[in-house]
Amino acid sequence: MSECLYEVLEPGIGLITFNRPDRLNAWTGRMGNEYFAAIDAANADPKVRVIVVTGAGKGYCAGADMGTLQAIPTGDTAKNDDGPSIVEGRMQDEITRLPKPVIAAVNGAAAGLGMVQALMCDMRFCADTAKFTVAFSKRGLIGEYGISWVLPRLVGQATALDLMMSSRVVMAQEALEMGMVNKVVPADQLMKVVLEYATDLAMNVSPSSMAVMKRQVYSDYGKDVATASKDALVLMQKSFTRSDFKEGVQSFLQKRQAEFPPVHPEA
Question: Which of 121, 174, 179, 202 could form an SS bridge with 104, CB 3.0 to 4.6 Å?
Fold first, then answer.
């Protein structure tokens, strides 16, 4: 059985589902391989305009599988026939460099590595029953997988240090109030709300515009405002030359559905 499922839904949504519900979708090397294969497939497919990630059952991703963690101190990095260990391979921050938007539909517990994966997504919608915990400090570990980069950008430095050092559990409403998630909805409505939002992006928004805006947000954070503004002028001039601009204006004037071309995987 696959540990990570992938399907393409109309009108252009790549749905990735962590699929170890009996273990609250705890991360393994095999799951990592299958997850990044799904990410690659969604990024390469011109039909896919938005990527949604969620978990099967009651959990989103409970972090690294404890069997893997137990093996590390013995010197066995928990390789198996299905893939590398959690300490090898590709990194969660790759999501930030994809040209397509990635939305986490957090349906349950997101802990450790699972929390990092959710935070690296561009947006997070979560069930009112969802909860988050960094977990690393209570395992004798450090801020892993880029959480020290992404968490302060979402919640601020002091709150990030609180969450990382204490590894306390944060429930959905507090996560919303601190800016960790975009929206909290009743658990039984989560996927409906997320897929409706993703459908709107897929049908009504220029994929090229989304790709450039995503790159701007992640790259401009470290710039001063004058540099970011000047860079935006250059990008705006380029946008005037793309077919998306012409189609966006014409579809508005003609009161019809826009037909934007797909974005290149390396845009």
Answer: 121
Which spans in the chain are helix H? Answer: 29-44, 66-71, 113-120, 147-155, 157-166, 172-177, 190-204, 207-220, 225-241, 243-253
Mark whether 188 and 215 lie in a shared domain.
no
- Tabulate helix, strand, coil % of the chain (nearest 5): 50, 15, 35
Range of the domain at 238: 206-253
pTM here is 0.90
Task: Give the single-character DSSP code of 56.
Answer: S
Question: Would you write out the chain's pLDDT as a tens digit for each of its 267 residues?
Answer: 899 999 999 999 999 999 999 999 999 999 999 999 999 999 999 999 999 999 999 999 999 876 655 444 445 544 444 544 555 678 999 999 999 999 999 999 999 999 999 999 999 999 999 999 998 877 777 778 889 999 999 999 999 999 999 989 999 999 999 999 999 999 999 999 999 999 999 999 999 999 999 999 999 988 889 999 988 988 888 888 888 888 888 888 888 888 888 887 766
The length of the chain in residues reads: 267
Query: Tokens 């699929």 belong to which residue?
Result: 19
